[in-house]
Task: structure prediction
Amino acid sequence: MKARSAFSGKAASATLLVLLAGRPAHAEEPEPVDLSTLPVRPASATPFVAASAPQAPVALSPPVGFGKQGQLFVTADRLMPLVSYTTQSVTMSQGATETKISDRGASFAFFVGREPGLASMHTVPRLAVDYAVVDHLTVGTALPLAFGLGGSHSEDRTQNGGTTSRKHNSPEMTVLGFAPRVGYVLPLSPRFAFWPRAGVAFYSMRTKTEQSNEASAISTTVDTDTLFSLDLDPQVVWSPIDGLFVHAGGIANLPISGAHSTEFSQAASSSTRTDDLSVFRVGLSAGLGGWLAL
Result:
């Protein structure tokens, strides 16, 4: 038994010597790596942050703003009259006698486009141009213009087999005006603003009427009204998109001075009379317009 154990020990020793002898002499053990010197970089941190970070919302372009310096406004003012009250008076003097003729009237005319009643020169739609010289401050003018293109009036009367005809021109009316003004834009929100405007305006209205009598003699009457007034035009503006707006608000025409003249002519005779005229008007009206930046 002892001999067998000795043999086994010798065999194991011999095997170990063979293995050591077969190993290359130049082979070296790898140097140990110090893990504490390596940078720590979690592999999942960056993808997780990128995936979980909220995306910034897409910024919408804000409205440019109504009333900025350099904007040019083109409007159709008093395009749709709504409500109004008007007083008109003519004062005639002859010697020691003074006669004053007054008319008053109110109207309510939604979506009609024309206001019945007095003061046609104040109710006619007008083209207006304004410019913002600095932020909010505007200067401009309105141009009332209306005229007839002519027409005729005829009357045929048949009696006892005979026909009598009378013909003359239809009444003609021409309205001209010039209304310079200044305004100030007060922004209420990105799409709403309050735009009061004021100025001194000049108006002229000429009406020509012809009549014929039984002898077919034609008489002509020409009435001419001229007015200077202080025009107040405070408007609320809504701009649904940049470059387009709708406005509505109060209007007031306060008389400064005026004259009413009547010229009557028939055949070779004629006469002219001039009297004082005053027209006061307040109301509500609406219009629309557009603007662009120069």
